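Reader question, answered in our methods column.
A reader sent in the components of a multi-part assembly and asked whether the whole thing could be modeled at once rather than chain by chain. We filled in our standard form and ran it. Here is what they sent:
COMPLEX SIZE: two components
ENTRIES:
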Amino acid sequence: MPCVGDWLNSPLSIVQGIFAQNAPNSDWEKKVTEYFKEKLKENNATNWVPSLNDVPVHYLKPNSLVKFRCMVQDMFDPEFYMGVYETVDPNTNARVLHFGKYRDVAECGPQQEIDLNSPQTVTSERQTFYCVPVPGESAWVKEISFLTEPARVSPSTSYTPSRHKRSYEEDEDMDLHPSKQKEQHMACKSCFSGSGGDIHGCVEPKRLETEASAGHHVISPNCSPPLDLNFPLPGEKGPACLVKIYESWESFKVNDVLEVFGVLSVDPVLSIVNSEERDSSSLDPMECMDTMEEQRVHSPPASLVPRIHVILAQKLQHINPLLPACLNEEESKTCEFVSNFMSELSPVRAELLGFLTHALLGDSLAAEYLILHLISTVYGRRDVLPLGKFTVNLSGCPRSSAFTEHLYRLIQQLVPASYHLRMSIESMNHSRFTPHKDYTANRLVSGLLQLASNTSLVIDETQLEQGQLDTAGVHNVTALGNLITWQKVDYDFNYHRMEFPCNINVLITSEGRSLLPSDCQVHLQPQIIPPNMEEYMSSLLTAVLPSVLNKFRIYLSLLRLLDYSISDEVTKAVEEDFVEMRKNNPESVTADDLHKMLLVARFLSLSAGQTTLSRERWLRAKQLEALRKARLQQQQCVNGNEL
Amino acid sequence: MSSPASTPSRRRGKRGRGSNPSTPQDARSPPSQKRRTDDSTSTGDLQPMPTSPPADAQSPGAADALFSSPPQFRHSAIPLDFDISSPLTYGTPSSRVEGTPRSGARGTPVRQRPDLGSVRKARQVDLHSDGLAEDIVATEQSLGQKLVIWGTDVNVASCKEKFQRFLQRFIDPLDKEDEDIGLDLNEPRYMQRLQEINMVGEPFLNVNCDHLRSFDENLYRQLVCYPQEVIPTFDMAANEIFFDRYPDSILEHQIQVRPYNALKTRNMRNLNPEDIDQLITISGMVIRSSQLIPEMQEAFFRCQVCAFTTRVEIDRGRIAEPSVCKNCNTTHSMALIHNRSMFSDKQMIKLQESPEDMPAGQTPHTVALFAHNDLVDKVQPGDRVNVTGIYRAVPIRVNPRVSSVKSVYRTHIDVIHYRKTDSKRLHGVDEETEQKRFTEERVELLKELSKKADIYERLALALAPSIYEHEDIKKGILLQLFGGSRKDFTHTGRGNFRAEINILLCGDPGTSKSQLLQYVYNLVPRGQYTSGKGSSAVGLTAYVMKDPETRQLVLQTGALVLSDNGICCIDEFDKMNESTRSVLHEVMEQQTLSIAKAGIICQLNARTSILAAANPIESQWNPKKTTIENIQLPHTLLSRFDLIFLMLDPRDEAYDRRLARHLVSLYYQSEEKMEEEYMDMAVLRDYIAYARSYVNPRLGEEAGQALIEAYVDMRKIGSGRGMVSAYPRQLESLIRLAEAHAKVRFSDKVETVDVEEAKRLHREALKQSATDPKTGIVDISILTTGMSATARKRKEELAQALRKLIQSKGKAPSLKYQQLLDDLRAQSDIAVTKEMFEEALRALADEDFLTVTGKTVRLL
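And here is the structure of the entire assembly that came back:
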């Protein structure tokens, strides 16, 4: 009888049950997804499912239900697989029908053979995505999402893997010593990446673990160079995963953030396939059609890159664990949440403004603009023009005192995903910004700019020295420029380029005006120069209560998702205003300026939780812009005098 | 499986499609549907894993005779010596046609077709014996037999007969293909092809499936569904006809039929399990090709004891090594002799979906191709090809010793025919790729649209809706997108006339020029976007590169060549350096690019329209200066632009108001609402593509008259004041614009309306760009000579005044420069600048009146 443990630990047996009931009928597939959808709807059921983001692969049971929050990094070619197949026992001639969905290997008993010619066989199609954890995910996102998780379901010892022998003691001792786990995870992870290229893959997890805790790094002497897991950002950790999608894969795009629930498959056979193939390749010309690199990339060892056979998948609007995952209006729960939060919005805003003012060394105008920047998002595109992007160039940053470094750390505490890009001649020349296609391995090699929507990209231009950019450097700067102006990244497919639209919040910190384009330049006017920047900033952070910090986080993520409109009346007023301003001095206000003012007005209203533009807000937006411009002019004068 | 044919004793047909050709209706429905309804069949498409090599249909002795190597293989063929109804004779309709002597195929060896796989296992089923479907395919009644190949509804004899009929009779006088040079369209097309084979000796017959479809729908369906069986039958048919006609012809091997252009699948993304084992045509780009792989076709074994030899054919990549010598019965005595085994060439190619087929935000799919024999090394990475072949799926065995298999299939395409799509682009317009496929409804919709009276305005509005107003500019760009009609005057010695319209936008920074360019670049399929600052002459044209692998020189094409038949958008045109710009001279008028570099001398086509944007030299447009002075571009280049628009920031209250409203609306309208308001970008794109490929307007009588008048008028305007305000180039521009406007209306004839609009637009552009700031008169010579006629006149006057002044000074041999200038200034009633003065001096020097050395002026 299916109980909680069953659908979590051995979802395939549930599928088998449903399949057996409805066998020849193709309805069973729908019933399976419905069943799991129901199960996951139950209270907090999703929290019961272990997450690959949190738990290392070897602590998870093969063929159990797992969840994974990830970004689609690459899409492989669709696969044809045996949806339904029949095995036959050569002795008794007994035929049994099996399903191939959610599996990598067509299973059959020891005495059985697969009848490939059976008329019952159904060939189906599925799509494989190469997924990586959301790049630049902040530490707090992980902490909060897995803090709330109750103790993991204890694995049932009665479960016996059908094909291969593996001990699962470590699963038990994981539950016994939950506190110890963490270090062990880390140790194991590093060990895994160290022995990344191990093509045999099926190293006993037990052995690995003991060795790892003893502080050894297992690097087998004859292993090929470690497999590049293709994370967009350097220094990322976490499992990459081959996600097999069975339904409506057309709706997913590269760089989408997904949460998938599916069957974990780490069958060592998958890795054996590789070595076997290599031996027999001389014999069978069919096998040599992929290059070594391609094989390595497309069927990496399962211990390193597990497979997930997706039962349910959903696109995520955001990855903030403090917010309900899906913010549609219908659900009363989310409505309640939103309205509750809205009621206490203005104190939160005031507090956040204060916090950021301190962070920006007492400059409240810059803090105001920073809030606007942090809640900006591309909400639409008018043909090529992205609407709603608000790139801020924070000029006048003190260069010496690692100010930007600390500012980034604060921002990291506020947004779910971010990356700090230190611009220097060397980093521009030597890093790869745009993803490009590697045709030998047949995959999309990631670049720094392959980021999920609403990732905060903080570009630190204060580090930039004089020097010569080479071709790669020029390309990288152009790519950054394109990203900022058009919110798109041109991926290099060698023979052609493809545009991928993106939605990345770019904040540029620089001393003078940035060499990159930006929507608005704010010149920082520090009121205080703390003698010890580090102390100052960390004290700032410790001064904020965690609950308040969480409110900031909710504030920034939630306001981004609100709708916005402008009434006819205000439209008229804005029109009048514009005409008036132009009348006095047509040079002073251009269409571009109006664009900016409307943007500021939009985010200003939203930041106060208002979804329509009011006259006051418009005036406030104008005032802010005037202040900002005055500051710039003043700055220019100063510079002019100095020069 | 309900078919009685599946009794265990019978070997399953290799395709195992088990479809039961039970009723005629069923037979007619495509197998895909069949498989859907009849779940019993769907695996069938997979080549079964051989559990044990099946006994061949023929006796071993017979097989031996067949397997003698082709060069020694001589048929003593007597025409028509076979019994058509014998299942044995036709039981194996492969191109190998074991032991089936073809009539007249004297001495021409048969060549294996690895592209079709091992077909010889195909079986025929006598429907009579099956006891069902007595009434199958009526035409076969005449032949008195009902044999079909197992698992299909293909009857070899009738199929062959139909195909022969097709070869002998198919005429399509309207069809036009590039390869058709020298073909008489009113004669049976494929008979001419056979004749060509006889003359050239290339034993391949390419058959357009479209032709076959129009000739015999059912045969076409069979071909697409069962290519593995049908193509060998076609081979037989073609060979029979050929050797009947040309009995003395000597070919390398027998003719192989290569069908192409199967319409079933166009896009790689649409491939699905139903396409397995069917004939498909997909387009894509080659990204990788492997080395040549020698694939063993036939293994040669010799007994080490008695030296008895035998041949074993490869069965799906495996050799069944004979364990017992048939002659001396020794076990394990047979050894493989490599040198006497037969190999065929094979190559693995990766094909990637072409960028146009890719949905936004997804990465391209790839598919593996296997090319065999002649097709090896026919394509290089980077080539765009249309591939026709058979889609295959093979299960992957995890381990030969373990019974479990990976539940995933490996898929590939066995290539039968390649058609390169881009190599031809360098020679002529490739109609095939150019003609996007439109569904009936789409065409209907587009035609409906074209009938609207305001279609021109509508389209112009739909163009870059986020950019406010600038209607005339949008109209100009719209016409550029449509382009004029291509005309060929090669026989009169003038070559091709340019049909492309070039446009230059210049104006204040921040007037969304770049945005307009970006939009156009995104709209057209073959657009290129470059920035003048960032591009070099090489980047625009082409450069020669040494391929690191093959060490051979490769011509890499630049933006201009890549945008052949498209639009090349060049931003910051003014910042382009001189040498780069000079490249454009040739492109913009002759529409070709000549390259002479590192041993490669060639002329590439670059029939590209150029949409350029330039900023004024003083960053702000100076209304007191002419266009040339403002953007500092050579007039030789400027005159090559059909339309030059100024994009200025208008200072006008009403405009401001409208602009503000427009912008505000951008900031709150939801996306859906925006889409409703304007014509969809996709519709616009289709509309343009349709017009470009199907509408080719010619000048009507009236329109011609109107053009003449317009031109004469334009000439007249200036002549009164001694200026020329129009040149033949302007007339050509007018013609192109008028044609483009006719295209917008989907009209085959250029009418007076078109000429009117062309005139208006041209005048509009002229008014903006060629107005003499000093006189306010439109003066084309600003663009053609870089100076307005009045300015030139003034220059002459000044020179004359100077001459008079000098002459009035008497006989002084030399004069002081500064003093002369002062004198001239004192005398003149207009302000004389130093430049003007120097110009006047130069003019006089040219007349040998004086020379200037340093600060003194000497009279001669």
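What stands out: Chain A touches chain B through 97 residues (CB under 8 Å). The domain at 332-559 of chain A is CATH 3.40.50.300 (Rossmann fold).
Send us your own complexes using the same form.
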